[in-house]
Write a structure and sequence with these properties.
single chain, flat, two-stranded antiparallel sheet
Amino acid sequence: MAEALPPQLRQIQHHLRTGQEHEKRDPVVAYYCRLYAMQTGMKLDSKTPECRKFLVKLMDQLETMKKELGDNESISQELVGHAHIENYALKMFLYADNEDRSGRFHKNMIKSFYTASLLLDVLSVFGELSEENFQHRKYAKWKATYIHNCLKNGEVPQSGPIGMEGEAYDDEYDVEHGAASRPSPHVLSKEDPDANTNFSNLQIPPGAHAPANTPAEVPHFTGEPSNPVQPVPRNIPVVDPSLLNAMQQGEVRLTPEDYARAQKYCKYAGSALQYEDVGEAIQNLQKALKLLTTGRE
């Protein structure tokens, strides 16, 4: 948007920038980033003239995009839209996490961590975040700040999940331009500040690959060579034999909510396969089959 962002709405500036960056790359991501910005902006300040003017223009832009993308299921169906944004955010997260664990610290991975956290913010347009996504968002924001500050101070960051201490991501901190104008720690927990969070048990799916919107070539790491990352062993779940020749049992009456849940499990299975997580894909497909054949989960 050409309209200048009022200072009262500074909190949504990075979500709007992410939307602008994805205008051509992924219009669905751009749409939901702007939708989140509009909804959040309405809560921040919808009464002062400059904010109201800005938000009305943003609404008009959203309406235009919705018409242009009307045939896209990610726009017309919330469940599909949620899966699209969640998958995209986790791809960004997994790319950055893979770079982090490999000891490759650079601006692209910092930005990927932060962009993932912004997109996990955006998921709130569909409802409250799951506990897993909440933790991923919290971790990604902290990692972006931690690695940025380490590189800025000439220190070598510690790879992987470690105890989180100190300040969180500040709204004025701009990863893209590598600047933090002033420290302003804010609460990251759902209820109360949590200054010392241990992320050592955070579950990260295996098979992290760089998504299409991240640079194909990672800048060469000029520090000490890092130890190669060992493949994560996968535990493949046992397939329920009763589902191998699954047929609907009797007159099972499925509700629209049942169909939506089955579709959700299939979407999650597809997402897991993108990350080469066979076990997770099998578990979700089995849940979908059981629901469709028995009407129960």
